[in-house]
Amino acid sequence: MPELSTIFAALGDPTRFAIVERLIRDGEQPAGELLDAGPVSAPAISRHLKVLRKAGIVTQRVDRQRRIYAVRPEAVQSIGAWTMSHREFWQGSLDRLELALQQESERK
Fold first, then answer.
1. How many CB atoms are closer than 10 A to CB 1?
2. Cα atoms in the Cβ-side hemisphere of radius 13 Å centred on 64
3. CA of 15: how far to CAs of 5, 23, 42, in Å?
4. Domain 4-107: which CATH class?
5. From its phi and psi, is residue 8 left (phi > 0), alpha (psi between -120 and 50) or beta?
6. Residue 36 burial (CB count, 10 A)
7. Quick one: DSSP state of residue 39?
8. CA-CA distance, 72 to 75, in Å (whole number)?
9. Can you give the residue ranges of every domain in the chain?
């Protein structure tokens, strides 16, 4: 599995993010169905899909003349795990802040 920094870098582009959102929402799609994911040409969509493949975010399978793309569940899971670990950090910080504010309020 590629590093999260590679995944986040790939998702940092609005067109690639839109492609992944579409694949998550609608399931696997042929490349031709993704042409309206952004204001770009068909060759540009192909380049975006290549970046997403290299980042380990999507898979490609061949069905006769079509290339079918799908999101790799492992990529989404790694993003989710990272997000949850940071959520715990922020929740702990907010809990400490709330306690400090309560203690300050009680002193007054």
1. 11
2. 1
3. 18, 12, 12
4. mainly alpha
5. alpha
6. 10
7. S
8. 5
9. 4-107
Could you tell me if 93 and 86 are in contact, meaning their C-beta atoms sit under 8 angstroms apart? Answer: no
Count the Cβ atoms, other than its own, within 10 Å of residue 71: 20
pLDDT of 1 higher than 60: no
pTM: 0.76
Residue keyed to tokens 């290299």 = 54
**pLDDT tens digits, one per residue of 38-74:** 888 999 999 999 999 999 999 999 999 999 999 999 9
- Quickly list H helices, the chain: 4-11, 14-26, 42-54, 73-107
Amino acid at 80: G
